[in-house]
């Protein structure tokens, strides 16, 4: 019986939800809208987006829906994030891969909130294609349809868009889409003295460790289109001392007009921090100047909520009525005026029969709800016969009248 009940429940769930309770489904078009406030986007700019999402009623835990970034964008920031309800419960999880495919997976929250399940998300991307002044129609594949998000772009920088040639400064940026490597460069204006000695230090802040294998020192006089040094470079050997927590570079005898750059990568060793800072110093001919740069992570997030299932009251089983036989009237023997007669009455209020079946203190039989017993019937027949015999004998013994009114003696 239990197996039949389970099969019936599974069948009803399949009818109402359209799927087997043990299977996970891919939901098409779970993402319902995409928006951005970015404009005049240039190559390598960070572009933030928001989305809305909704899934059909009675979607199951483990069901997924997807979002595919267009070719112009790459995911920027932590690849995994949660979508939570107002109480902090995880409604769904999201994971972006290297191709730009973001997969959202419903959690167990869907079981307890099976209807009106929807929410929003927010994430960052990086514009990787070369830009022009044209408006670009970004197309997000969400399953069986595409969501369009137009965005305006601008020509790439060609002049004055790199380091300030008149400032001693440290520049940094995220070197990879996962935001786990910070690349930085320390530079200063061209040397003004006939010969200059330079010392550069770089100290990573909490959560960062320098990668000494990436240290590069450049000296030259030509800046490229983006403001950094380009070939030809000057052959000026540098003295480099490097650990994970300290870099020191020393240059001697730089000529007038020469420019130096010190490049290094730092790896994130504490992903829980939202910002990462490098500090350093630049000392030229004894004059020291501090430099610093900070990079903040791009945080993806999401929300979700649904309507809780309404408890269904368990019906109380209706008891099966039990039929009760109606007692048949029991004939009752009562004395009558003529001897030997039997009167049958329906004794509805007859006294109950004491245990043992004996009738005490009454000649009236109780109404037991059962037919007369054979013994009782035989007793009644015998009593009737006895009465008849008595009547007959009394009639034979009466004196006979003789002719002429004289009584005759009884016979025999």
Automatic annotation (TrEMBL):
<dbReference type="InterPro" id="IPR008966">
    <property type="entry name" value="Adhesion_dom_sf"/>
</dbReference>
<keyword id="KW-0732">Signal</keyword>
<dbReference type="InterPro" id="IPR041171">
    <property type="entry name" value="SDR_Ig"/>
</dbReference>
<dbReference type="GO" id="GO:0007155">
    <property type="term" value="P:cell adhesion"/>
</dbReference>
<dbReference type="InterPro" id="IPR011252">
    <property type="entry name" value="Fibrogen-bd_dom1"/>
</dbReference>
<keyword id="KW-0572">Peptidoglycan-anchor</keyword>
<keyword id="KW-0964">Secreted</keyword>
<feature type="transmembrane region" description="Helical">
    <location>
        <begin position="372"/>
        <end position="392"/>
    </location>
</feature>
<dbReference type="Pfam" id="PF17961">
    <property type="entry name" value="Big_8"/>
</dbReference>
<feature type="region of interest" description="Disordered">
    <location>
        <begin position="277"/>
        <end position="366"/>
    </location>
</feature>
<protein>
    <submittedName>
        <fullName>Putative surface anchored protein</fullName>
    </submittedName>
</protein>
<keyword id="KW-0472">Membrane</keyword>
<feature type="compositionally biased region" description="Low complexity">
    <location>
        <begin position="321"/>
        <end position="341"/>
    </location>
</feature>
<keyword id="KW-0134">Cell wall</keyword>
<feature type="domain" description="SDR-like Ig">
    <location>
        <begin position="41"/>
        <end position="134"/>
    </location>
</feature>
<feature type="compositionally biased region" description="Low complexity">
    <location>
        <begin position="297"/>
        <end position="313"/>
    </location>
</feature>
<feature type="signal peptide">
    <location>
        <begin position="1"/>
        <end position="24"/>
    </location>
</feature>
<keyword id="KW-0812">Transmembrane</keyword>
<keyword id="KW-1133">Transmembrane helix</keyword>
């Amino acid at each position: 019986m239990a197996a039949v009940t389970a099969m019936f429940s599974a069948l009803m769930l399949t009818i109402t939800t359209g799927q087997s309770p043990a299977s996970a489904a891919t939901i098409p078009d779970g993402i319902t809208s995409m928006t951005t406030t970015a404009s005049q986007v240039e190559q390598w700019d960070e572009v933030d987006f928001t989305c809305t999402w909704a899934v059909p009623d009675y979607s199951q835990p483990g069901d997924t829906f997807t979002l595919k970034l267009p070719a112009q964008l790459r995911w920027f920031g932590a690849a995994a994030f949660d979508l939570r309800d107002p109480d902090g419960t995880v409604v769904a999880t999201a994971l972006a891969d290297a191709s730009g495919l973001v997969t959202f997976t419903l959690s167990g929250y869907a079981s307890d909130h099976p209807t009106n399940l929807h929410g929003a998300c927010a994430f960052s991307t990086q514009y990787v294609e070369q830009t022009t002044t044209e408006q670009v129609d970004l197309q997000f594949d969400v399953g069986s349809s595409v969501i369009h998000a137009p965005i305006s772009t601008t020509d790439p920088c060609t002049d004055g868009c790199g380091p300030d040639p008149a400032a001693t400064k440290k520049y940094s940026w995220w070197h990879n889409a996962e935001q786990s490597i910070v690349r930085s460069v320390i530079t200063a204006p061209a040397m003004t003295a006939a010969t200059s000695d330079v010392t550069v230090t770089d100290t990573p802040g909490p959560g960062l460790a320098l990668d000494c294998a990436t240290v590069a020192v450049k000296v030259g006089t030509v800046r490229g289109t983006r403001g950094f040094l380009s070939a030809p470079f000057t052959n000026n050997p540098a003295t480099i001392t490097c650990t994970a927590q300290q870099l020191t570079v020393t240059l001697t005898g730089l000529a007038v007009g020469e420019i130096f750059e010190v490049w290094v990568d730092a790896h994130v060793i504490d992903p829980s921090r939202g910002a990462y800072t490098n500090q350093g110093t630049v000392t030229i001919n004894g004059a020291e100047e501090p430099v610093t740069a900070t990079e903040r992570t791009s945080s993806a997030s999401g929300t979700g909520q649904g309507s809780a299932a309404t408890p269904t009251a368990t019906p109380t089983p209706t008891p099966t009525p039990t039929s009760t036989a109606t007692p048949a009237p029991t004939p009752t023997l009562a004395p009558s005026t003529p001897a030997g007669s039997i009167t049958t009455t329906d004794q509805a209020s007859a006294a109950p029969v004491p245990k043992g079946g004996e009738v005490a203190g009454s000649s009236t039989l109780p109404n037991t709800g059962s037919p007369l017993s054979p013994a009782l019937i035989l007793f009644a027949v015998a009593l009737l016969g006895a009465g008849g015999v008595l009547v007959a004998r009394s009639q034979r013994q009466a004196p006979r009248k003789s002719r002429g009114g004289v009584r005759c003696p009884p016979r025999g």
